[in-house]
Write a structure and sequence with these properties.
The protein is an alpha+beta fold. The chain is built from eight helices and 15 strands. The strands form three sheets. Strands 4-3-5-6-7-8-9-10 form an eight-stranded mixed sheet, sandwiched between helices. Strands 12-11-13-15-14 form a five-stranded mixed sheet, with helices on both faces. It has a two-stranded antiparallel ribbon with strand order 1-2. A hairpin with a 4-residue loop joins strand 7 and strand 8.
């Protein structure tokens, strides 16, 4: 990690964080305006339950344009428009509306997530440098730069103090495919009697930020794509969370777990045994 940070001056990290924050704020304002005007489904993705709205596409187009103007040599990976290689070694990983079903139904738990990473756009190998996650509905913006801590607005945030498993409030999410959900429910049946309670909020980025600011003690989910977790995972880690995947690999599509230190190991034993998610 120190080698990566040595390659970036403080001013460069400041610049990356500013771009992430400003772009997320502009994208959030557009998405919120479109929500107020009325939402239309554009198409579906993995299953008929997995929707894409016209606002997803329009918001990502704005983000991609702003990032291209600010950092023309960087790569890009977005949920709706895919990837584009750059020459700088940095890639922006973007979810224009994380929690699209919430967005569609008018539930105020959705977000715009923007992160910049060094290396390939793969959670197993990248190093996240800066991130911003905004909930436009309540105007909360979470930010982090690597090695510099995590913030909610201008206030530095931290995970909760040590929490035993039986007192843990745990967030999770479910896949859109029915077979995967069946496997996930089996794990939930084992987990629920052993913790304080479980929450399913509907936005992975906000769940990870909720761990960062102490609204959740832990969060786990299988099947997350790179854009689902890039921003929130850095923010959670910079707030002091243990962020990890199955078999103690980096958090990835197979499993993303963020938890108060000391809680992660016990949770990992419970939630990492379900079948792979397609």
């Amino acid at each position: 990690m120190s080698g990566v940070l040595d390659g970036y001056m403080s001013s460069e990290l400041d610049d990356l964080l500013r771009i992430a924050r400003d772009t997320a704020s502009a994208a959030g304002a557009l998405a919120l305006q479109r929500r107020r005007e009325g939402v239309e489904v554009a198409n579906t993705k993995s299953t008929p339950l997995d929707v894409v709205t016209h606002a997803d596409k329009e918001t990502e187009a704005l983000i991609r344009s702003m990032l291209s103007d600010a950092r023309p040599n960087d790569g890009f990976l977005g949920e709706e428009s895919g990837g584009g290689d750059g020459t700088s070694g940095l890639t922006w990983v973007v979810d224009p509306i994380d929690g699209t079903v919430n967005y569609l139904y008018g539930i105020p738990s959705w977000s715009v997530s923007i992160a910049v990473v060094e290396g390939e756009a793969d959670p197993l190998s990248w190093t996240a440098l800066a991130a911003a996650v905004i909930n436009p509905t309540n105007e909360e913006i979470f930010t982090a730069a690597r090695g510099r801590g995590a913030y909610l607005g201008e206030t530095r945030i931290h995970v909760n103090e040590e929490v035993p498993l039986e007192r843990a409030l745990v967030g999770t999410g479910f896949a859109y495919s029915v077979p995967s959900r069946t496997a996930q429910l089996e794990v939930l049946n084992e987990l629920l009697p052993r913790v304080r309670d479980v929450r399913r909020i509907g936005s992975a980025a906000l769940d990870l930020c909720s761990v960062a600011c102490g609204r959740l003690d832990a969060y786990y989910e299988r099947g997350l794509q790179p854009w689902d977790q890039a921003g929130g995972a850095l923010i959670a880690a910079e707030a002091g969370a243990t962020v990890i995947g199955a078999a103690r690999r980096p958090a990835n599509h197979e499993l993303t777990l963020a938890a108060v230190p000391g809680l992660a190991a016990s949770l990992l034993k419970i939630v990492s045994d379900d079948a792979p998610v397609s």
